[in-house]
Amino acid sequence: MGEWHPESPARLQVIEDQLIANGVMPLLDCRTAPLATDEHLQRVHTSQAIARVRDYLPKVREFGDFRGGPYHAIDADTLLNPYSWRAALRAAGAAVAAADAVLFGEVRNAFCAVRPPGHHATPTAAMGFCLFNNVAIAACHAMQAHGLQRIAIVDFDVHHGNGTEAAFSGDERVLMVSFFQHPLYPFSGTHPQGNVPRNMVNIPVPAYTLGNTVRELIERHWMPALNQHRPEMIFISAGFDAHREDDLASMGLVEADYAWITTQLVAVANQWSKGRIVSCLEGGYSLPALGRSVVAHLRVLAGLDECSAG
Fold it and tell me: Can you tell me the distance from the alpha carbon of 94 to that of 158, in angstroms, rounded to the nearest whole number?
Protein backbone atom coordinates (compact mmCIF):
# COMPACT_ATOMS: atom_id res chain seq x y z
CA MET A 1 0.00 0.00 0.00
CA GLY A 2 3.04 2.26 -0.25
CA GLU A 3 6.56 2.54 1.16
CA TRP A 4 5.19 4.57 4.10
CA HIS A 5 2.42 2.12 4.97
CA PRO A 6 2.69 -0.07 8.10
CA GLU A 7 0.81 -2.93 6.36
CA SER A 8 3.89 -3.96 4.42
CA PRO A 9 5.36 -7.11 2.85
CA ALA A 10 8.02 -7.04 5.58
CA ARG A 11 5.38 -8.32 8.01
CA LEU A 12 5.25 -11.74 6.37
CA GLN A 13 9.02 -11.81 5.91
CA VAL A 14 9.70 -11.23 9.61
CA ILE A 15 7.24 -13.98 10.54
CA GLU A 16 9.01 -16.44 8.24
CA ASP A 17 12.42 -15.32 9.52
CA GLN A 18 11.41 -15.82 13.15
CA LEU A 19 9.83 -19.22 12.49
CA ILE A 20 13.09 -20.34 10.86
CA ALA A 21 15.31 -18.79 13.56
CA ASN A 22 13.32 -20.49 16.32
CA GLY A 23 13.36 -23.89 14.63
CA VAL A 24 9.59 -23.95 14.16
CA MET A 25 9.35 -23.80 10.38
CA PRO A 26 10.66 -27.35 9.68
CA LEU A 27 7.99 -28.73 12.03
CA LEU A 28 5.09 -27.17 10.13
CA ASP A 29 3.09 -28.41 7.14
CA CYS A 30 3.50 -25.29 5.00
CA ARG A 31 1.17 -24.80 2.04
CA THR A 32 0.72 -22.18 -0.67
CA ALA A 33 -2.60 -20.37 -0.59
CA PRO A 34 -5.05 -20.87 -3.47
CA LEU A 35 -7.23 -18.10 -4.86
CA ALA A 36 -10.69 -17.57 -3.41
CA THR A 37 -13.57 -17.78 -5.87
CA ASP A 38 -16.40 -15.33 -6.46
CA GLU A 39 -18.68 -17.78 -4.64
CA HIS A 40 -16.47 -17.59 -1.55
CA LEU A 41 -16.45 -13.78 -1.56
CA GLN A 42 -20.18 -13.48 -2.19
CA ARG A 43 -21.00 -15.44 0.95
CA VAL A 44 -19.96 -12.31 2.88
CA HIS A 45 -19.58 -9.35 0.51
CA THR A 46 -21.99 -7.64 -1.84
CA SER A 47 -21.27 -7.60 -5.54
CA GLN A 48 -20.71 -3.83 -5.29
CA ALA A 49 -18.08 -4.24 -2.57
CA ILE A 50 -16.27 -6.87 -4.62
CA ALA A 51 -16.38 -4.67 -7.73
CA ARG A 52 -14.86 -1.71 -5.85
CA VAL A 53 -11.72 -3.77 -5.39
CA ARG A 54 -11.69 -5.67 -8.69
CA ASP A 55 -12.59 -2.80 -11.00
CA TYR A 56 -10.39 -0.02 -9.57
CA LEU A 57 -6.94 -1.56 -9.83
CA PRO A 58 -4.43 0.92 -11.27
CA LYS A 59 -2.43 -0.09 -14.30
CA VAL A 60 1.12 -1.37 -13.95
CA ARG A 61 3.70 1.20 -14.96
CA GLU A 62 6.35 0.49 -17.55
CA PHE A 63 8.51 -2.54 -16.67
CA GLY A 64 5.94 -3.55 -14.07
CA ASP A 65 7.51 -1.40 -11.34
CA PHE A 66 4.79 0.06 -9.11
CA ARG A 67 6.95 1.21 -6.19
CA GLY A 68 5.81 4.70 -5.37
CA GLY A 69 2.61 4.15 -7.31
CA PRO A 70 0.27 3.95 -8.98
CA TYR A 71 -2.31 3.48 -6.26
CA HIS A 72 -6.06 3.85 -5.98
CA ALA A 73 -7.22 5.01 -2.56
CA ILE A 74 -10.33 3.31 -1.21
CA ASP A 75 -9.87 5.48 1.87
CA ALA A 76 -6.94 7.38 3.38
CA ASP A 77 -5.45 4.18 4.85
CA THR A 78 -6.55 1.55 2.32
CA LEU A 79 -4.94 1.62 -1.11
CA LEU A 80 -5.00 -0.66 -4.14
CA ASN A 81 -1.97 -1.37 -6.28
CA PRO A 82 -2.10 -3.34 -9.55
CA TYR A 83 -1.74 -6.68 -7.69
CA SER A 84 -4.10 -6.07 -4.76
CA TRP A 85 -6.97 -8.08 -6.25
CA ARG A 86 -4.86 -11.20 -6.60
CA ALA A 87 -3.32 -10.74 -3.14
CA ALA A 88 -6.77 -10.32 -1.58
CA LEU A 89 -8.06 -13.44 -3.34
CA ARG A 90 -5.09 -15.40 -2.07
CA ALA A 91 -5.56 -14.16 1.52
CA ALA A 92 -9.22 -15.17 1.53
CA GLY A 93 -8.38 -18.37 -0.33
CA ALA A 94 -5.87 -19.32 2.36
CA ALA A 95 -8.55 -19.07 5.05
CA VAL A 96 -11.00 -21.17 3.01
CA ALA A 97 -8.35 -23.80 2.20
CA ALA A 98 -7.31 -23.93 5.86
CA ALA A 99 -10.92 -24.53 6.89
CA ASP A 100 -11.19 -27.33 4.34
CA ALA A 101 -7.92 -28.92 5.49
CA VAL A 102 -9.01 -28.87 9.12
CA LEU A 103 -12.53 -30.11 8.46
CA PHE A 104 -11.31 -32.90 6.16
CA GLY A 105 -8.95 -34.02 8.91
CA GLU A 106 -5.74 -33.31 6.98
CA VAL A 107 -4.45 -31.09 9.80
CA ARG A 108 -5.65 -30.47 13.35
CA ASN A 109 -5.43 -26.67 13.12
CA ALA A 110 -3.97 -24.02 10.83
CA PHE A 111 -2.44 -20.55 10.84
CA CYS A 112 -2.78 -18.36 7.74
CA ALA A 113 0.10 -15.92 7.34
CA VAL A 114 -1.75 -13.58 5.00
CA ARG A 115 -2.03 -9.99 3.99
CA PRO A 116 -3.99 -7.86 3.48
CA PRO A 117 -5.79 -8.41 6.79
CA GLY A 118 -9.56 -8.70 6.85
CA HIS A 119 -11.53 -7.99 10.00
CA HIS A 120 -12.41 -4.36 9.18
CA ALA A 121 -13.88 -5.24 5.77
CA THR A 122 -17.66 -5.11 6.10
CA PRO A 123 -20.11 -6.84 3.76
CA THR A 124 -20.44 -3.56 1.85
CA ALA A 125 -17.02 -1.87 2.05
CA ALA A 126 -13.26 -2.36 2.22
CA MET A 127 -11.61 -0.25 4.91
CA GLY A 128 -8.87 -0.11 7.54
CA PHE A 129 -6.15 -1.85 5.46
CA CYS A 130 -8.67 -4.68 4.76
CA LEU A 131 -10.12 -5.60 1.36
CA PHE A 132 -12.11 -8.78 2.09
CA ASN A 133 -12.94 -10.33 5.45
CA ASN A 134 -10.84 -13.49 5.39
CA VAL A 135 -12.12 -14.98 8.66
CA ALA A 136 -15.77 -14.21 7.88
CA ILE A 137 -15.43 -15.78 4.43
CA ALA A 138 -13.89 -18.94 5.89
CA ALA A 139 -16.50 -19.15 8.65
CA CYS A 140 -19.32 -18.88 6.12
CA HIS A 141 -17.64 -21.56 4.03
CA ALA A 142 -17.48 -23.87 7.05
CA MET A 143 -21.20 -23.39 7.65
CA GLN A 144 -22.45 -23.46 4.06
CA ALA A 145 -20.11 -26.00 2.47
CA HIS A 146 -19.53 -28.25 5.49
CA GLY A 147 -22.80 -27.82 7.38
CA LEU A 148 -21.41 -26.59 10.70
CA GLN A 149 -24.05 -25.08 12.97
CA ARG A 150 -21.97 -23.43 15.71
CA ILE A 151 -18.91 -21.30 14.99
CA ALA A 152 -16.84 -19.15 17.34
CA ILE A 153 -14.78 -16.22 16.10
CA VAL A 154 -12.14 -14.92 18.51
CA ASP A 155 -10.58 -11.54 17.71
CA PHE A 156 -7.61 -10.39 19.80
CA ASP A 157 -6.50 -7.59 17.48
CA VAL A 158 -6.16 -4.25 19.28
CA HIS A 159 -8.79 -2.74 16.95
CA HIS A 160 -12.43 -3.78 17.05
CA GLY A 161 -13.36 -6.18 14.25
CA ASN A 162 -16.22 -4.07 12.98
CA GLY A 163 -16.43 -5.91 9.67
CA THR A 164 -16.79 -9.30 11.34
CA GLU A 165 -19.42 -7.96 13.70
CA ALA A 166 -21.34 -6.47 10.76
CA ALA A 167 -21.20 -9.81 8.92
CA PHE A 168 -22.56 -11.89 11.81
CA SER A 169 -24.50 -9.55 14.10
CA GLY A 170 -27.60 -11.41 15.26
CA ASP A 171 -26.57 -14.72 13.64
CA GLU A 172 -26.89 -17.10 16.57
CA ARG A 173 -24.82 -19.75 14.79
CA VAL A 174 -21.79 -17.51 15.29
CA LEU A 175 -20.40 -16.31 18.62
CA MET A 176 -17.84 -13.49 18.37
CA VAL A 177 -15.64 -12.66 21.34
CA SER A 178 -12.99 -9.97 21.39
CA PHE A 179 -11.23 -7.29 23.37
CA PHE A 180 -10.05 -4.04 21.82
CA GLN A 181 -8.58 -0.72 22.86
CA HIS A 182 -11.23 1.99 23.16
CA PRO A 183 -11.39 4.69 21.98
CA LEU A 184 -9.43 3.72 18.89
CA TYR A 185 -10.11 3.14 15.19
CA PRO A 186 -12.71 2.16 13.98
CA PHE A 187 -14.50 3.59 17.07
CA SER A 188 -17.08 0.82 17.10
CA GLY A 189 -18.10 -2.13 19.19
CA THR A 190 -19.31 -0.37 22.33
CA HIS A 191 -23.00 0.04 21.39
CA PRO A 192 -23.57 3.20 23.45
CA GLN A 193 -27.28 3.15 22.60
CA GLY A 194 -27.67 -0.37 23.95
CA ASN A 195 -29.07 -3.22 21.86
CA VAL A 196 -25.85 -5.26 21.99
CA PRO A 197 -26.29 -8.30 19.72
CA ARG A 198 -26.65 -11.40 21.86
CA ASN A 199 -23.98 -13.24 19.91
CA MET A 200 -21.31 -10.58 20.53
CA VAL A 201 -19.04 -10.56 23.60
CA ASN A 202 -16.78 -7.66 22.70
CA ILE A 203 -14.85 -6.02 25.54
CA PRO A 204 -13.53 -2.46 25.20
CA VAL A 205 -10.49 -1.71 27.35
CA PRO A 206 -8.63 1.57 27.89
CA ALA A 207 -5.18 2.40 26.61
CA TYR A 208 -2.27 1.00 28.62
CA THR A 209 -4.21 -2.10 29.68
CA LEU A 210 -1.75 -4.86 30.56
CA GLY A 211 -1.86 -8.57 29.92
CA ASN A 212 -2.94 -9.59 33.42
CA THR A 213 -6.10 -7.50 33.09
CA VAL A 214 -6.83 -8.96 29.66
CA ARG A 215 -6.41 -12.48 31.05
CA GLU A 216 -8.90 -11.75 33.84
CA LEU A 217 -11.43 -10.38 31.35
CA ILE A 218 -11.03 -13.43 29.12
CA GLU A 219 -11.62 -15.80 32.03
CA ARG A 220 -14.63 -13.80 33.21
CA HIS A 221 -16.33 -13.08 29.87
CA TRP A 222 -14.97 -15.11 26.96
CA MET A 223 -14.65 -18.52 28.55
CA PRO A 224 -18.23 -18.86 29.88
CA ALA A 225 -19.63 -17.66 26.55
CA LEU A 226 -17.44 -20.03 24.52
CA ASN A 227 -18.28 -23.01 26.71
CA GLN A 228 -21.97 -22.20 26.55
CA HIS A 229 -21.84 -21.90 22.74
CA ARG A 230 -19.93 -25.19 22.33
CA PRO A 231 -18.44 -24.27 18.96
CA GLU A 232 -17.82 -26.95 16.37
CA MET A 233 -14.90 -24.90 15.07
CA ILE A 234 -12.98 -21.81 16.21
CA PHE A 235 -11.68 -19.08 13.90
CA ILE A 236 -9.16 -16.58 15.25
CA SER A 237 -8.58 -13.06 13.98
CA ALA A 238 -5.01 -13.03 15.21
CA GLY A 239 -3.87 -9.44 15.43
CA PHE A 240 -0.71 -8.80 17.44
CA ASP A 241 -0.91 -5.00 17.61
CA ALA A 242 -1.96 -5.00 21.29
CA HIS A 243 1.73 -5.74 21.97
CA ARG A 244 3.43 -3.13 24.12
CA GLU A 245 5.96 -2.38 21.35
CA ASP A 246 3.35 -1.61 18.67
CA ASP A 247 3.05 2.08 17.85
CA LEU A 248 -0.40 1.88 16.21
CA ALA A 249 -2.02 1.45 19.63
CA SER A 250 -1.22 1.74 23.34
CA MET A 251 -1.79 -1.59 25.05
CA GLY A 252 0.68 -3.68 27.01
CA LEU A 253 0.55 -7.32 25.95
CA VAL A 254 3.68 -9.42 25.45
CA GLU A 255 4.42 -12.76 23.82
CA ALA A 256 3.52 -14.72 26.95
CA ASP A 257 0.03 -13.20 26.88
CA TYR A 258 -0.56 -14.36 23.30
CA ALA A 259 0.67 -17.84 24.24
CA TRP A 260 -1.69 -17.87 27.24
CA ILE A 261 -4.67 -16.75 25.14
CA THR A 262 -3.89 -19.41 22.54
CA THR A 263 -3.67 -22.05 25.26
CA GLN A 264 -7.16 -21.16 26.50
CA LEU A 265 -8.55 -21.38 22.97
CA VAL A 266 -6.87 -24.71 22.31
CA ALA A 267 -8.48 -26.05 25.50
CA VAL A 268 -11.93 -24.90 24.33
CA ALA A 269 -11.33 -26.39 20.89
CA ASN A 270 -10.21 -29.70 22.40
CA GLN A 271 -13.35 -29.83 24.53
CA TRP A 272 -15.98 -28.83 21.97
CA SER A 273 -14.44 -28.56 18.49
CA LYS A 274 -12.31 -31.70 18.02
CA GLY A 275 -9.33 -29.35 18.26
CA ARG A 276 -10.36 -27.54 15.08
CA ILE A 277 -8.92 -24.02 14.86
CA VAL A 278 -8.13 -21.76 11.91
CA SER A 279 -6.16 -18.64 12.83
CA CYS A 280 -5.65 -15.79 10.35
CA LEU A 281 -3.17 -12.95 10.68
CA GLU A 282 -4.72 -9.54 11.17
CA GLY A 283 -2.71 -6.62 12.59
CA GLY A 284 0.74 -6.33 14.16
CA TYR A 285 3.05 -3.58 12.93
CA SER A 286 6.11 -3.61 15.17
CA LEU A 287 8.08 -6.09 13.11
CA PRO A 288 10.22 -7.63 15.88
CA ALA A 289 7.22 -7.96 18.22
CA LEU A 290 5.07 -9.39 15.44
CA GLY A 291 7.59 -12.10 14.60
CA ARG A 292 8.07 -13.13 18.22
CA SER A 293 4.34 -13.08 18.96
CA VAL A 294 3.44 -15.27 15.98
CA VAL A 295 6.09 -17.77 17.05
CA ALA A 296 4.54 -17.89 20.54
CA HIS A 297 1.06 -18.34 19.03
CA LEU A 298 2.16 -21.07 16.65
CA ARG A 299 4.18 -22.99 19.21
CA VAL A 300 1.00 -23.47 21.23
CA LEU A 301 -1.17 -24.28 18.18
CA ALA A 302 1.39 -26.84 17.02
CA GLY A 303 1.60 -28.45 20.44
CA LEU A 304 5.24 -27.49 20.92
CA ASP A 305 4.62 -25.52 24.13
CA GLU A 306 2.30 -25.90 27.07
CA CYS A 307 1.88 -22.36 28.28
CA SER A 308 1.68 -21.81 32.03
CA ALA A 309 -0.23 -18.97 33.68
CA GLY A 310 2.98 -17.04 34.05
Answer: 23
Closest CA to 283 of 256, 258, 308: 258
Alpha-carbon span 183 to 186, nearest angstrom? 8
Closest C-alpha among 282, 255, 284 to residue 161: 282
Q: How far is CA 247 from the centre of its chain?
A: 19
Rounded Cα gap, residues 156 and 147, in angstroms = 26
- Residue 309's pLDDT band (cuts 50, 70, 90): very low
CB 188 within 8 A of CB 160: yes
**64: pLDDT strictly greater than 60:** no
- CA dist 85 → 18, 130, 145 (Å): 28, 12, 24
pLDDT tens digits for range 40-55: 999 999 999 999 999 9
Q: Which residues pair with 181 in a beta bridge?
A: 205
In angstroms, the CA 160 to CA 204 distance is 8
| Residues linked to residue 174 through DSSP beta bridges, in sequence order | 151
pLDDT of amino acid 194: 75
E strands within 59-122?
72-75, 78-80, 109-112
**252 three-state secondary structure:** strand
Q: Would you please indicate which residues are annotated as catalytic (active-site) residues?
A: 120
| 22: pLDDT strictly greater than 50 | yes
Question: CA-based Rg of the chain, rounded to a whole angstrom?
Answer: 18
Mean pLDDT of 55-84: 83
